[in-house]
From TrEMBL:
Gene3D superfamilies: Dihydrodipicolinate Reductase, domain 2, NAD(P)-binding Rossmann-like Domain. PANTHER family: BILIVERDIN REDUCTASE A. InterPro entries: Gfo/Idh/MocA-like_OxRdtase_N, Gfo/Idh/MocA_Oxidoreductases, NAD(P)-bd_dom_sf. One of its GO terms (molecular function) is nucleotide binding. Coiled coil: none annotated. This is Putative dehydrogenase. Residues 6-117 form the Gfo/Idh/MocA-like oxidoreductase N-terminal domain. Pfam families: GFO_IDH_MocA.
Length: 359
């Protein structure tokens, strides 16, 4: 981009705060044109941070942002998205795009055909996931046939499944079960709890049969996103190999099986004076992912979110493809809702085809 991505935000909650902190660390890449805060308390807190605060959309849009990030609860986000779409504004809404499937279908009916809405789904953009996806795209495991995800919940996990398997709009037969067992929970969003006492926590396991030999396994414990006592695991199996986290094994000839490992290059270790930062991820000397924000000292999640927002701004300017359209997120939510329905009914659930499948 020749100029910083111009981002406006709505809301002043937890997610909006994370976005604002991140954008403030990348001043040459992003410009916050304004924040919409409809409550006096939120407006005051944002103004205290030196941000341009507006109480209505007219004021927010006067600065002509590239995109508006809708960072409000899922129960109210669709109304704001519809309002922005009605003004011809490009919007990025948080996940999930609506509170339930009825709300999702109503949102699609209202704005889907216009193509002005993206969704803030960043898990495929995490550096390791992006490198793994690139390996799959290059045919390292042959034709991908199965994905196992044990790291994140519901629509985030199904986005990884669809992205790595390439199932697009294909429906699935979903079977889910849940068990409860004790697990310590030493860290929450607020930080260390100071307690090592286990408490009952639920683990959900679900299988997806997409037909045509493609399947997926979902395995998530309720605090797994932050809990250091549970690992994050990603497996991609294919016709000529298997990727397990960072370990790849593949067939390169009739009698030749080759193991390799994804390598992560950091700067700033030992006597490296460049400063602590992610440089790239590679396998067998081939770079699969290069940090697009070098010297910024960002976490993997920050890299993913910043990449998504930058691509959304480029898309809004007609300078790049849509990074994660509403249709993609709707399919993620359709599949994740099937997990919850299978748990509720105790039996298999078959997902149909949503109206976005024709987009």
């Amino acid at each position: 981009m020749d100029r910083p991505a111009r981002i406006a935000l709505t809301g002043g909650g937890f997610r909006a705060g994370l976005h604002l902190d991140l954008l403030g660390r990348l001043p040459g890449r992003f410009e916050v044109t304004g924040v919409l805060a409809r409550s006096a308390a939120t407006a005051g807190a944002l103004a205290a941070r030196g941000l341009p605060v507006h109480r209505d959309l007219d004021g927010l849009l006067r600065a002509a942002p590239d995109v508006v990030v809708v960072s409000v609860p899922a129960r109210v986000a669709p109304g704001l998205v519809r309002e922005l779409d009605g003004r011809g504004v490009h919007a990025v809404t948080e996940t999930p795009a609506a509170a339930d499937l009825d709300g999702l279908r109503a949102l699609w009916d209202a704005v889907g055909a216009h193509g002005r809405v993206q969704v803030a789904e960043q898990y495929l953009l995490f550096p390791h996931n992006a490198a793994r996806a690139e390996l799959v795209r290059r045919g390292a495991v042959g034709t991908p046939t199965s994905v196992q995800v044990s790291s994140t919940q519901l629509h985030h996990a199904t986005s990884l499944v669809r992205g790595l398997l390439g199932t697009r709009w294909r429906g699935a037969r979903v079977v889910a079960t849940a068990t409860t067992a004790p697990l310590a929970d030493p860290i929450t969003r607020a930080g260390w709890t100071g307690s090592a006492e286990p408490r009952p926590q639920t683990t959900t396991i679900a299988t997806f049969d997409f037909g045509d030999g493609r399947s997926a396994l979902y395995d998530f414990t309720e605090t797994q996103t932050r809990n250091p006592l549970r690992a994050r695991r990603l497996v991609v199996r294919g016709s000529a190999g298997e990727l397990v986290d960072d370990r790849l094994v593949r067939l390169t000839g009739p009698t030749t099986v080759v193991p390799s490992t994804l390598e992560r290059r950091w700067t700033g270790h030992h006597q490296d004076v460049q400063g602590h930062d992610l440089d790239h991820l590679s396998l067998d000397g081939e770079v699969l992912f290069r940090n697009p924000f070098p010297t910024s000292r960002l976490s993997d999640e920050d890299i993913a979110v910043a990449t998504l927002l930058q691509r959304c701004a480029a898309w809004a300017r007609d300078e790049g493809p849509p990074p994660y359209p509403l249709a993609e997120a709707a399919q993620d939510q359709l599949l994740s809702a099937a997990i919850e329905r299978s748990l509720a009914t105790g039996g298999p659930v078959a997902t149909g085809e949503g109206p976005w499948a024709r987009s």
